[in-house]
Amino acid sequence: MALGLDWGYSNDKTAIILGGVIDNNLYLDEVCYKTQMTNKEIIDTLKRFGEMKVIADSADPRTINEVHMAGIRIYPVEKGPHSIIGGIEKMKEYNIFVTERSYNLQKELRNYVWDKDKDGNYINQPADGQADHLCDASRYFLMGMVYGKIQKPKGDMAAAFAR
Fold first, then answer.
1. Which domain covers residue 151, as residue numbers?
2. What is the CATH number of the domain that holds 119?
3. Which of 5, 16, 85, 129 could form an SS bridge with 31, CB 3.0 to 4.6 Å?
4. Per the structure, how many domains does the chain have?
5. Residue 141: which residues within 8 A CB-CB, separation 6 or more?
């Protein structure tokens, strides 16, 4: 088990899920889905889970470092070309179970849509602007914990993350 985290602030939600994998089953539980969260509030939310690993969006290294310095075992997910599609394809290999209380995650999964080309045909690319923050946090969890797609720390950060 571990946590998946997608950063947000103004219009985007900070999304945190608790995930676990048993055999071919992916279990997801919504922990947090809020805007306007400060780093301290995020840290306080994560600390409730003790020593559990957090697999986070790698887009904000400064915040990752701040959370790490607060004693949280946080690891940025490795992203690259086609990582969104690759992560979605990996998620589709599992039977996905979502807790009843995970209302926002259920809503995101039900409403997830693919983009269309100029002729109105669906293309293999998620539509921009949709609510998919918990879906992203779930994908980060899976890619980091099951497939080991974690960014390797560089420079001074390597020693800090070795502990």
1. 2-161
2. 3.30.420.280
3. 16
4. 1
5. 2, 3, 4, 17, 19, 28, 55
